[in-house]
Amino acid sequence: MLVMKFGGTSVGDGDRILRVAGLVGRHADDPPLAVVSAMGGVTDALLALSKAAQQGESSAADRALEEIGARHRGAVDAMCLAPSAAAACREEIGRELNRLEKLATGVSLLGELSPRTSDAIAAAGEMLSATLLTEALRKLGTRAVKIDPRALMATDASYGAAVPDEAGISSHLFERVLPERAAGRTVVTGGFVGSAPDGSFTTLGRGGSDFSAALFGAGLRDAGVPVEAIEIWTDVDGILTADPRIVPDARLIPEVSADEAAELAFFGAKVLHPATIRPAVTRGIPVVVRNTFHPGVSGTVVRADVAGRGVRALAARKGVAALFVGSPRMLMAHGYAARVFGVFEAHGVPVDVIATSEVSISTTVDEKAPIDAIVRDLSKFAEVHVLRHLAVVSVVGKGLRTTPGVAARIFSALGDVNAVMISQGASDTNVTFVVSADEASDALRRLHAEFFREDVR
Ligand code: ADP
Ligand code: ASP
Ligand code: MG
Known about the structure:
This protein is an alpha/beta fold and 457 residues long. It has 2 domains: 2-235, Acetylglutamate kinase-like (Carbamate kinase, 3-Layer(aba) Sandwich); 311-452, VC0802-like, CATH 3.30.2130.10. 40% of the residues lie in helices and 19% in strands. The chain has helices spanning 14-25, 42-54, 58-78, 83-110, 115-122, 124-139, 166-182, 209-222, 258-266, 277-281, 336-346, 371-378, 406-414, 440-452, and strands spanning 2-6, 33-36, 144-146, 186-190, 193-195, 201-203, 229-234, 255-257, 287-291, 300-303, 313-326, 354-356, 360-366, 383-396, 421-423, 430-436. An 8-stranded mixed β-sheet has the order 3-4-2-1-7-9-10-8, with helices on both faces. Strands 12-13-11-14-16-15 form a 6-stranded antiparallel β-sheet. Helix 2 runs parallel beside helix 4 (83-110) and helix 4 runs antiparallel to helix 6. The longest helix has 28 residues, at 83-110. The protein is globular, with a radius of gyration of 24 Å. Bound molecules: adenosine-5'-diphosphate, aspartic acid (ASP) and magnesium ion. Residues 7-8, 37-38, 43, 125, 191-192, 206-210 line the site of aspartic acid.
């Protein structure tokens, strides 16, 4: 059995949803579990709706609702469904919009948007796209049924980044999905969305549909179903040597190890959600990244381990600030590092890339973190210097630390691009450095030319 997940671009309009239904329907003899994201841009629109409601901007909120409705109704029209199926879709869209309208009214009356309510609003995109794909499958003659993701994806109540309950998910899959499969029906559900113990909506965090697919694959395996692969269908041929939007000649990587894929995702390769690999890899299920628009391409297989070492791919993540924390008197003093990191901890801010020198400890953090408050606390015992508008660039591959000459090649390729911070990483799988955000794309292109020139490989 396959778990097939389709991202936002793949289900971006009615024609695309029909295309996806064609890909899913090919497996009707061994019905897959189809997991869908919201139509591209819809989750952003829902979050904008929440914000507008919270700020009492009722006309902006109305407009957002109107656009979300129009987008989905447009897809229903483009799919040319049978009248009864089209009516069922429109009814479902109407119900979801009503629910959203009520939530938005509540938020604007209170002027308050709790994480719980934000999730209840953000979940609407996946609820709707699952309805559309189910009807598209039926139109193409595939027997299909939609199951509400809340009935499958059991989580805790950490709204916005809910923690899955893997045993609960597996037992829900056993009870709900297996009987449908046995009856020859393909199950469609929404990614990203889950349900807290009290039944309220939760979400797994942005990009979380990949994680949903992996958790469902793992849960099915735990329920005794042979899951061949978790397929992540997107708008590129697979995992490439760099983001093709920045490096147009980036190349497809046929296979990557789970460690490499996890590092790439963490360091900014948006193609896969960082948490996706773990539930799959621990059970030996391959994750395959494929292109909805080039289904003939076999994509990238992510496995626990793959042959070969050396530079595999590059990634960059913008929106980063660096804090250089120096205290010449105290650097080597017992407990100093704990004190520095304790400040970040107290503000609930994870530190990212870390480097130390004789006179300072440097760390990067998300630019949106409460940097001023952190600096105020650190300044009580250290001198702090902040650099904003930076990007973390990472060179990823197995055995990098022990491959002679990699660092030299990286820094000679960078030329006059200045690295303000360098870290080999705690693992042997990346060399990471920090540059000005304005230079990040240039750095990626230079490194790509160095490591992936046709004649170099
Ligand atoms: P989806 O909506 O299908 O989940 P995403 O937008 O989350 O798709 O991820 C796909 C995008 O990831 C691609 O369009 C590409 O621009 C970007 N991307 C970044 N780094 C890479 C990489 N190394 N390989 C492939 N795609 C990448
Ligand atoms: N729709 C959600 C998002 O945009 C989840 C996903 O697409 O994976 O973040
Ligand atoms: Mg994604």
